[in-house]
Amino acid sequence: MPELPEVETLLRGLKKRVLGRWLGAVDVRHPQVIAGSPDEFSRQISGRQILGARRKGKAIAIELGLRTREDGGEKRYLLVRLGMTGQFTVNPVAEPLEPHTHVRLGLDGGKEELRYVDARRFGRLRSLAGEELEKLFGGMGPDAPRITESQFQKALSNRRTPLKSWLMNQQFLSGVGNIYADESLYIARLNPLIEAGQLSARQSRRLLRALKHVLERAVELQGTSFRDYIDIEGRPGNFLPQLRVCRRCRQPIERVVISGRSSHFCPHCQPQPRHRTRRAKAKRLARS
Ligand SMILES: [Zn+2]
Question: I want to staple 175 with a disulfide (CB 3.0 to 4.6 A). Which of 24, 102, 128, 144 is the partner?
Answer without folding.
Answer: 144
